[in-house]
Amino acid sequence: MVAGIVSRRGALGLLAGATAGLTFGTKFSFADAPLKVGIPIWVGWMPFWIMDEKKIGDKHKLNAVLTQFTVQTDARQALAAGSLDVCALNTADVLAIDAVSPVAKVITLTNASAGADIIIARGVDKVEDLKGKKVALEIGSVSHFFFSKVLEKAGLKESDVNIINMSAQDAGAAFVAKAIDVSVTWEPFASQGIASGGTALVTSKDTPNLIIDIISARNDILKSRRDDVKRLLDAWYDALEFVSTNKDEAFAIMAKHSDVKVDEFAGMWAGVKMYSRPENIQLIGTPEKPGPYSEAVKAMSNFMVEAKLIPHNVEPSSMIDGTLLA
Q: Which end of the chain has the smaller Cβ count within 10 Å, N or C?
């Protein structure tokens, strides 16, 4: 379902009124008050449904309800409003929440884009040649953030190009229709553009650990139900292990919940870098010695302030809690 894949990366506006927007839920047994977990549709979060179908939560005596969201903004708003306890989101989502009120923390990193975000071009050989060109992308999205960092590395500014605001899907379609010669988009729209005669000018492989997805939890839940959140993280990492040891079955489960074919899902999975527990410990670090993820948070926060998406910067130390990873 293309719409589901797209929803993970929509525009990063400020929080509006909260809405449930949920499609269905799955309950693990044990106890009467389940941990409410939100899961937007995105390739890097599909291991949650392996946790469900393989009953990995039962092994950990996990007390949880998994709820799938077709629109990621709805999940973010539900977490902010307290309708969810834990939610799979991206770094920018937690910044958007905490810039309004310190509600949630990042408790683990799930994945980074590693090739799934692409600048596709026609008649352009290098980034420096983008000066003066029209570029289609969704303003305020992770595509915008990705593009700004690519320009910065090449010594260019956004004012050096003419940005045309389009969704990732529309940017890809405009490129295929030859209505525009440069688009910033992601899979599967990027591959469609390349098949129409474009080239991959830059991909997120060239910007490792820049676009990062996470699991977040409300601060009040981290205080009152810390053991339950720890059980959830342990089950998550067991689900990742299942993917590595039972790839065919795992891909079938994850493709079903993404509403795509297995071979399509395999291509999408290849475009993300999934983080292991040891990698998380290294990337997050400790309060005394923060890891590289803190710099990624600062970069995203600065971008969102400059783009007037949040009113002020959020300090990484106030929104990261890696203590449950041990």
A: C
Reported as a pLDDT band with limits 50, 70 and 90, residue 290 is very high
Same domain for 316 and 215:
yes
pLDDT tens digits for range 58-83: 999 998 999 998 878 889 999 999 99
Q: What is the pTM of this model?
A: 0.83
What sign for the dihedral angle of Cα 295, 8, 68, 238?
negative
Continuous H helices in 54-136: 56-59, 72-81, 91-98
CA distance 222 to 225: 6
Q: What percent of the chain has pLDDT over 70?
A: 90
C-alpha 311/C-alpha 306 separation (Å) is 9
Number of domains in the chain: 2
pLDDT-derived band at 302 (thresholds 50, 70, 90) equals very high
| 158 and 287, same domain (yes or no) | no
Range of the domain at 195: 117-206
Would strands 86-90 and 35-40 be described as parallel, antiparallel, or unpaired?
parallel
Task: Specify whether 168 is located in the same domain as 238.
Answer: no
The torsion of the CA quartet 37, 38, 44, 48, rounded to 10 degrees, works out to: 40
